[in-house]
Specification:
Helices cover 61% and strands 12% of the residues. The protein is an alpha/beta fold. Helix 6 (186-226) packs antiparallel against helix 7 and helix 7 packs antiparallel against helix 10. The longest helix is centred in the middle third of the chain and has 54 residues, at 286-339.
């Protein structure tokens, strides 16, 4: 009775502790539900989202459905390396069980020879036979480790490759990070979470397959040795204990999922510190950043401490019921054939058996029973590991689901509203009624609304066109939608309506204000995203590339930095102006029909800027520019101006408008007023 009261009290305590962890961590954990709908009327987007609901990572129907969808990725066919490893591991596990059975019998024979003082039998068993069997024992044990680790590595490689193929397909990587906001810390999911998932799955496979084989074979051996009822009593006991422990155990899958999220937040904070170190240093904001990182660390530590306390008390009950109570029951079952003749068998409790024979039988059968108990115990612990595995499966499955949605043009965002609160807005671009037409000689917007992924309408209906030779300059106040136009042209943002005509990707190039520098050689910066072999196919030798550098005044970099093949972080080595000039050289290398320049010459002088634009004209590159610099007027034929209300106008640029200016600043004020 006292034990029952203690168990019930401990159960209540564990539940309260788990609820406290839930209250601390899950309040901020938002996982988006499915089943939301969108509607489209008159080219205006109306999002009807549902309020956020919490999802827990647990071993339920949803978990098995998620895992079922991942299996074809992990094991694509019976001829795959993964399938061969799965079968090989199963064979090694079966062989290991047969060796365990042999060892139990061997141990009993050795004990009998010692008790009976039979020197010849002891020598034959303990020395000669074991000297032979130690080789297969050692080989099988290490083969088990090798096969298990190889399977985990194969799973990781297969799943990582699938993630790379899907994540880097088209523009999914951008849309998953900027348009759809369901995923957080994607870098952690692609690296750490997949690695832990693969290791956990491999361990779980061994942790379930090996005990199942052990239960079958050792149950059969025990039925022969101590009667048919003994194995069933042990199995029934462990099933009952498992059900009881499940009642008092917190869902560890939820704890693991929350821990991974908090770890990702801490890691992201350090990544931000590195990425924005210059700005933070300029603002003297290190103390503020330290507070943010310390708070993230405290959340991780607090969660892990509470999880460890839960595991401590849970482990106490595991030890008592799974280990010690099971041991007492095993003593009872082993002694029963000896103490009660009605339970005697041919292999245990024979009245004519000698003392040494009884000791041999007891030693052998206790080995069988210990292995059976350990196998059932491992199955119980595998259930605990299954809860942990459910957490990893949930994150990987959510990652795959979001990428598949994004690839199909379906986006979901968590949006906060003062009137509606936190809601989920889903955008299905397949139902928006827009058209995208490919034409390498035209960029055209026909009644295309400019809408942010969050659903904010910047421009209700935009119409303009750019043909080869028509250079367009776009200006307007910050936040009016200038850069958004280029995100739509490049396919980064979804099109919410109207008709969009754009060239194929190879005929258009986008140059931002801060050019992207790949980690590679100086040659790689110039020809990006091409490789050296692709550049050579286009007849671009190093001499020809050097002439491109000379065109933008950067030929000195070859001497200063040590030649074409020096690998460095060029974003740190080059100045802002050098990076912008190198980006323009990259433009001349690719020679697209259209180029989108977003303040890409803001860090160079007016003279260099004029030279860069004149050179682009020589290459017959049609330019669409975003800039407030009036010096660029002479390089464009048309001006597109926006105001803060989403209105716009297009006008022809005449020579007088820029030749009569006194300075760039005056022209900017005179020629670029906000339309009303």
């Amino acid at each position: 009775m006292a034990g029952l009261v203690l168990a019930l009290a401990s159960t209540t305590w564990l539940k309260k502790k788990y609820n406290s962890v839930n209250n601390d961590t899950s309040a901020k954990e938002k996982i988006l539900p499915n089943g939301d709908k969108t509607s489209n009327k008159n080219n205006k987007i109306t999002n009807t989202g549902s309020k956020l609901k919490k999802r827990t990572a647990s071993v339920d129907k949803r978990f098995f459905e998620q895992f079922r969808r991942i299996i074809p990725i992990l094991v694509p066919g019976i001829k795959s390396k993964e399938f061969v490893l799965v079968v090989s591991l199963a064979l090694v596990l079966i062989l290991r069980t047969y060796l365990d059975i042999w060892f139990s019998g061997f141990n009993g024979a050795v004990v009998k020879s010692i008790v009976s003082r039979n020197k010849s039998v002891f020598k034959r068993k303990a020395i000669y036979e074991f000297a032979i069997m130690m080789w297969p024992l050692s080989i099988v044990n290490n083969a088990l480790k090798l096969t298990k680790s190889s399977l985990a590595l194969a799973f990781r490689q297969r799943l990582s490759q699938y993630a790379h193929d899907t994540y880097l397909k088209n523009l999914n990587f951008y849309r998953a990070n900027n348009v759809d906001n369901r995923l957080h810390n994607i870098d952690q999911c692609v690296t750490q979470d997949i690695d832990k998932f693969a290791i956990c799955l491999s361990n779980l496979y061994c942790g379930i397959a090996k005990p199942l084989v052990d239960v079958c074979l050792f149950s059969y051996k025990l039925q022969q040795a101590i009667g048919k009822g003994a194995p069933m009593i042990m199995i029934f006991y462990f099933i009952s204990v498992t059900m009881f422990l499940k009642k008092i155990s917190p869902p560890f899958g939820k704890l693991i999922s929350t821990e991974q999220r908090l770890e990702g937040d801490l890691r992201y904070g350090h990544s931000r510190l590195i990425a924005h170190s210059e700005e933070i240093g300029a603002y003297r904001g290190i103390n503020r950043e330290k507070i943010i990182l310390d708070n993230s660390l405290k959340k991780v530590v607090k969660h892990i401490e509470k999880s460890n306390v839960l595991r401590f008390f849970n482990g106490i009950f595991d030890s008592i019921f799974v280990k010690y109570c099971a041991t007492m029951l095993a003593f009872k079952l082993l002694a029963r054939p000896l103490m009660d003749p009605k339970y005697a068998t041919m292999l245990m409790g024979n009245a004519k058996a000698t003392t040494s024979q009884l000791i041999e039988d007891y030693s052998r059968n206790s080995g069988y029973l210990v292995n059976l108990s350990q196998a059932i115990g491992r199955l119980i612990l595998a259930g605990r590991d299954l809860s942990r595995f459910a957490g990893y499966t949930s994150r990987i499955s959510d990652f795959i689901d979001v990428l598949n949605d994004v690839d199909q043009g379906i986006y979901s965002r968590y949006v906060k509203s003062k009137t509606e609160g936190a809601r989920v807005h889903i955008i299905d671009t397949n139902r928006l009624g827009y058209k995208v037409i490919r034409n390498n000689d035209l960029i055209k917007f026909s009644n295309v609304p400019v809408v942010t992924p969050a659903g904010d309408v910047l421009i209700e209906s935009l119409s303009f066109e750019v043909r080869p030779g028509v250079n367009l300059l776009i200006t307007g106040p910050n936040g009016c939608g200038k850069s958004s136009i280029f995100r739509i042209i490049n396919g980064l943002w979804p099109v919410f309506g109207g008709t969009l005509v754009v060239p194929n990707p190879e005929n258009i190039l986008y140059l931002p204000q801060k050019p992207y520098m790949i980690l590679g050689t100086l040659r790689d910066q110039l020809i990006y995203p091409h490789t050296r072999s692709e550049a050579l196919k286009r007849q671009y030798t190093d001499d020809k590339l050097e002439r491109l550098l000379a065109t933008v005044g950067l030929q000195h970099l070859l001497i200063r930095e040590g030649g074409w093949d020096v690998v460095a972080d060029w974003s740190e080595i080059l100045s802002g102006g050098e990076k912008q000039r190198l980006a323009m050289a990259r433009l001349y290398y690719h020679q697209p029909k259209f180029a989108i320049l977003d303040e890409c010459t803001s860090a160079v002088s007016t003279d260099i800027e004029n030279h860069l634009f004149y050179t682009a004209k020589k290459y017959d590159i049609t330019i669409i520019s975003i800039s407030h610099r009036a010096s660029l007027l002479k390089h464009h034929t048309h001006l597109l101006r926006f105001d803060e209300q989403g209105n716009y106008e297009i006008e022809l640029i005449d020579e007088i408008s820029w030749k009569s200016s006194e300075s760039d600043e005056l022209v900017a004020e005179k020629e670029f007023p906000s339309s009303t």
